[in-house]
Design a protein that fits this description.
With 78 residues, the protein is α+β, with helices and mostly antiparallel strands. It is built from two helices and three strands, in the order βββαα. The radius of gyration is 12 Å and the shape is globular.
């Protein structure tokens, strides 16, 4: 299995938990920052990450990181 790629956070709105893709053969994921406050989105994001090939430890670490603090360092565009 290819090595997992980066995990990125972004404000994806209220209905999108996460999306995944492959970049250079590596799974890459974007997790909704709203998952920090919504247990249903958090669960859906976890399923998306596992389905994309991220291992359970990486998935749990990413979701815990989203819950603890905002990972996105840049402000949203107006």
């Amino acid at each position: 299995m290819p090595e997992a790629g980066p995990l990125i956070t972004a404000n994806l709105g209220r209905r999108i938990a996460a999306f995944t893709t492959r970049i250079n053969g590596r799974p890459t994921a974007v997790i909704n920052t709203e998952a920090a406050h919504d247990p249903e989105l958090r669960a859906q994001a976890g399923l998306a990450l596992v389905a994309a090939g991220f291992d359970a430890g990486t998935t749990l670490g990413a979701l815990n990181g989203v819950r603890r603090r905002p990972l996105a360092q840049e402000e949203a565009w107006p």
